[in-house]
Records
---
Amino acid sequence: MQNGTTLYALDIDGASFTKACGGPCTEGCVTLARIGEDAWALGDSKRPDAQPLRFTTEELGVAGIDPARFGLDV
């Protein structure tokens, strides 16, 4: 099981981030990438230099974030 320490130890160079937008994305979008088994990185397209936050699949669910909305399988 992943935890905060192991999640942030994962290398995300080369991770493929996808956007989920409810509209034209003129204000920026949330981006999501699978970075390992039960591990996700959540970014902000308006702040590409900001380090993405990292979550387990369970944590994403608790936050109401569904990877399927991004076209990703759990």
---
Amino acid sequence: MTTPRKVHIKSYGCQMNVYDAQRMVDTLAPEGFVETVSVDDADLVILNTCHIREKASEKVYSELGRLRTVKDEAARNGREMRIAVAGCVAQAEGSEIIRRERAVDIVVGPQSYHHLPQLLAKAKTDGRAIETEFPVEDKFASLPDPKPAVIRARGISSFVTVQEGCDKFCTFCVVPYTRGMEMSRPVARIIDDVQRLADNGVREITLIGQNVNAFHGDGDDGKPWSLGRLLYRLADIPGIVRLRYSTSHPRDVDDALIEAHRDIPAVMPFVHLPVQSGSDRILEAMNRKHTAADYARTVERFRKVREDIAFSSDFIVGFPGETAEDFSATLALVRQISYAGAYSFKYSPRPGTPAADMQETVTTTVMDERLARLQELIDSQQAAFNAAAIGKTVDVLFERAARNPGQIVGRTAYLQPAHVMASPDIIGQVLPVTIDSLERYSLIGALADPAHVASFSQPANTSPPAMTTGA
């Protein structure tokens, strides 16, 4: 029997990269690769990179320096190890990566990782392999289906890519240059993917895309379907109890998506809707093509159909030319919307984007101060949102055993971690939990259904362990 080769993938950045990493493993499985958590025994190491934040490429080169040492040590021990750089930094930097780091064997962009087996063969014969063009064929049509055992091992929640790329050209963003223009997958293939996942124990699906609510994949009627219509169809698949999607653009929220939140119990009342700034002047400079008032009206459209809906968002502070008044407008919008959580970042120029050439830069000191103030406000809103769950009974989809014996962790509709003492047989079920307390960002509670409580017996001569937060 041939000894399996081992692949280690380190992913940076977005949910799409997490999904892509899994699909790389699926692509390499027919070549005899199995995944390993250790770099030291890997035959292939892939850095699956992200180019959104500042100094992304420098972080990659720093990691490559460490990997070169591991690769050299493997060679001294008579073992061949290959290194690949994938993802958006690979797309942006191309052959420059190999020029700067001799240890790299393969450079592959995010639209071409389905060619990894061929690139490995080319690297073996030619010494190096690079592919950063946007291929004509649909990579998803070429990816092998994950095996049932692999799906089950990945857990009860899964990402499914339905859309890639973006046509918005926000002045700060590299996505159109690294992921390409908007492309939506055919509805039938998405349904097949979700059906396969459901058949193997997946209960929650998150549809992902750089601009997911711009989805316009061809349906079985030959017409483009909206994201809302797709959600209606996926909700009919037996076994799928929760549907989510990310990331959305405010300009692409249509009536069908609003109605899906109104009509479909499986669609979770939690929407990630990035706004980036509360200042109309800065939004125009960012080329967002919406105003703060437009954004607030979109939020209200959701709230009219689901009173329990909550929102998260993305914010950039210190965009070129941002004044104190502009930043105050951002704080005002945050107070107006009241978020369950949000991500906030200091502006970082990305090479090749229009904003990188803007001259009215904000000092690091001012950016640091503004970021701290914004995060303090967002954290206070998130804390209040979480605290409001205490004393309530909420539905939790249980995912896995937590760190402490007897403790099972799941997530609420709003992605809050919730911990209970229970038997592992509740994993994969949505059960009501009465929330007793809050520890940092985790809810602590007890199963509300006496039948499930009775089915769990604490081991003899032990006391319940202290609850931990997180996973």
---
Amino acid sequence: MLAHPADDRDLAAWADHAATSVRTLTRLFQAETGMTFAQWRTHARIRAALILLAEGVPIRATTRAVGYRKPGAFAEAFRRITGDLPSVYNPP
């Protein structure tokens, strides 16, 4: 997931990939990260977005590269995590 933040497999698919149960993976995520899988995925995607934006990748391209279909949804998630809009990190 860190290598491919746009990967949209859900928790059940990741559990199957890891040959474990959803319940076990859910418990492990919470114990190891202090977050749910969904929260961790959002943080991982925003971390990847910060790198892309710092490299000068346009916001729309960054949005798609980290797994968001709508720029508005990406901007809202980005703001929730960082406290800023993506444009602060990638001015026009």
---
Amino acid sequence: MKSKVSGLIALAAAVIAASAVPSRAEDLKFQLTNGTNSVLTRFYSSPTGVNSWEEDVFGEKVLNPGETVNITIADGRTVCKYDMRFEFDENSDLDTTEDTQDLCELGSYTIHE
């Protein structure tokens, strides 16, 4: 009887310890393709419902027409639905474009004119 009680206490302690460890969100990864004839200079994303844009994903880089880049959003969140903002070269005829997508389901996204 004593061994059963000790075993239950050990099991309860293990369950409590496991639940005390914070769960880690997986990085959100997808491919972004520039399907326009203009240079994509900036790409911003933020979870739907957040009132400000996160930093520019490209930094100093750009995405030329027809190019594809692998994007990783490692923000520690567990959401899939993101707002996206695309800004083009100042010589482009394209306006800044915004869209909302479930990036977990897509796996890839192509921006079109």
